């Protein structure tokens, strides 16, 4: 019999107990900040109707959608004159959490109170080429508010980003731009019908450089007459107010571009008033490739670790309109949990002891001794202390090794003498200190196990 070597698909990962504890630390931190600002959790299915997903992410995004084969025999009645995938696949794995959220809002519109504030922490899938910091299955932690055009919503998202990364101990820079500004740029460059080509290209500026961006634009049919205005914008320097003032002169004939500058000016005014601690920059090359953004766009980069964007998002005015509910403006950002994990791991920012399953292990010295300690194990658990009882009456050396490998800091060894005296013996495995407690004094025992000292 051939034995199949176990494996997982490329671009996916298993997570050990310790890694899972570290990831939960990220999720718990982000969730607590979301809740502080009044956002409530929802969940949507892993798969959506393909019609819900297609056409929402641009041409490149559509190529990365995982399509799910319909049940039954798809080839029995296939019309091979049409693309086969369109006939045998009517569902797909979600590409992000924003489009399913828009579908959710429209479907449950009558049940919701607006502005509606929600967060969602679930996996998404993209048929991308796996590489460092880029996976085919990864978690997103989305926070959105829909039903208000106010840029106080954008400010709140900046505050959330600021709070999350300060709690995680990661220095970041928040970068902002506005899609109306990019539309205005396309107008002043003389290619208003090719705004998508323009934004897709300049979004790669940091990665490939200005010359390569111009070469890509030329391939898309955007001629050299566009380059002077483009260079003037992308090479602007100075503080935010200076950049916006320079852009106003360039955009004098673009109504939509000036509207975008007005929104940026207002948002940066809010940010200054709110006293945001994290640096916030105006990045005029920031485009965010998703087609549904219409206003402010966000991107967050770690300052001390080389990796792609670890958080991003933006304002969308028309997304629910695709599903039959126009005029419902929303804005949100997504925290990339997997990339944040890589940053925290690389910078050694995880707190110690996250992977520890228990604080105390009761050694198994035999049936009678186990019967003696079981009530105390239950009582300590009721007090909120994680406790294990070793299941087998094995050699003490093996039980010591188990505690060490599991990262359990305290071991309690109790034989017939301790049981007869009504005592509990506890050893601190880090210091080697051993203490004896009256079995009736669980307060002192609990304090020692929790803190390592007796008050």
Give the secondary structure arrangement, pairings included:
Elements: H1 17-36, E1 40-41, E2 47-49, H2 50-53, H3 58-63, E3 67-69, H4 84-88, E4 89-93, H5 98-107, E5 116-125, E6 137-146, H6 152-168, E7 172-178, H7 179-188, H8 195-202, H9 205-208, H10 210-219, H11 227-234, H12 240-250, H13 255-274, E8 280-282, E9 296-302, E10 311-316, E11 330-336, H14 337-346, E12 360-362, H15 367-382, E13 387-389, H16 396-406, E14 410-412, H17 416-421, E15 423-428, E16 434-438, H18 442-451
Helix pairs in contact: 1-6, 1-14, 6-13, 7-13, 8-10, 12-13
Description:
The chain has 455 residues and is α+β, with helices and mostly antiparallel strands. It has 2 domains: 17-346, Bira Bifunctional Protein, Domain 2 (BirA Bifunctional Protein, domain 2, 2-Layer Sandwich); 360-451, Anticodon-binding domain (Rossmann fold, 3-Layer(aba) Sandwich). It has helices at residues 17-36, 50-53, 58-63, 84-88, 98-107, 152-168, 179-188, 195-202, 205-208, 210-219, 227-234, 240-250, 255-274, 337-346, 367-382, 396-406, 416-421, 442-451; strands at residues 40-41, 47-49, 67-69, 89-93, 116-125, 137-146, 172-178, 280-282, 296-302, 311-316, 330-336, 360-362, 387-389, 410-412, 423-428, 434-438.
């Amino acid at each position: 019999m051939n034995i199949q070597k176990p494996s997982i698909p490329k671009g996916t990962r298993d997570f050990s107990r310790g890694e899972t504890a570290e990831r939960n630390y990220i999720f718990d931190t982000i969730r607590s900040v979301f809740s502080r600002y009044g956002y409530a959790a929802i969940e949507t299915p892993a798969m959506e109707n393909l019609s819900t997903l297609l056409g929402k992410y641009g041409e490149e995004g559509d190529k990365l959608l995982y399509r799910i084969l319909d049940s039954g025999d798809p080839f029995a009645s296939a019309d091979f004159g049409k693309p086969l995938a369109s006939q045998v696949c009517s569902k797909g794995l979600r590409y992000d959490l924003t489009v399913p959220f828009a579908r959710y809002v429209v479907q449950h519109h009558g049940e919701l109170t607006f502005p509606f504030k929600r967060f969602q922490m679930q996996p998404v899938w993209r048929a991308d080429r796996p590489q460092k910091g880029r996976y085919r299955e990864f978690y997103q932690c989305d926070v959105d508010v829909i039903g208000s055009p106010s840029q106080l919503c954008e400010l709140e998202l900046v505050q959330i980003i600021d709070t999350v990364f300060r709690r995680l101990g990661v220095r970041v820079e928040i970068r902002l731009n506005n899609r109306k500004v990019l539309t205005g740029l396309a107008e002043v460059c003389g290619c208003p019908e090719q705004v998508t080509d323009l934004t897709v290209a300049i979004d790669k500026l940091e990665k490939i450089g200005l010359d390569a961006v111009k070469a890509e634009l030329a391939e898309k049919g955007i001629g050299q007459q566009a380059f002077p205005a483009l260079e003037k914008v992308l090479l602007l320097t100075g503080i935010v107010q200076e950049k916006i003032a320079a852009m106003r002169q360039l955009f004098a004939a673009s109504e939509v571009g000036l509207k975008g500058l007005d929104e940026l000016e207002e948002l940066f005014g809010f940010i200054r008033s709110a006293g945001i601690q994290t640096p916030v920059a105006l990045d005029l090359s920031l485009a965010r490739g998703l087609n549904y953004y219409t206003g402010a766009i966000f991107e967050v980069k770690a300052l001390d670790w080389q990796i792609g964007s670890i958080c991003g998002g933006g304002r969308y005015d028309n997304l629910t309109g695709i599903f039959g509910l126009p005029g419902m403006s929303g804005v949100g950002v997504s925290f990339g949990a997997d990339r944040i994990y890589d940053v925290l791991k690389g910078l050694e920012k995880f707190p110690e002891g996250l992977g520890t399953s228990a604080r105390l292990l009761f050694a198994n010295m035999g049936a009678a001794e186990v019967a003696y300690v079981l009530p105390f194990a239950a009582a300590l658990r009721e007090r909120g202390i994680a406790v294990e009882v070793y299941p087998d009456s094995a050699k003490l050396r093996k039980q010591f090794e188990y505690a060490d490998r599991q990262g359990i800091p305290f071991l309690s060894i109790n034989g017939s003498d301790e049981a007869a005296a009504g005592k509990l013996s506890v050893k601190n495995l880090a210091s080697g200190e051993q203490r004896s407690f009256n079995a009736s004094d669980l307060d002192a025992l609990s304090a020692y196990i929790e803190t390592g000292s007796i008050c």
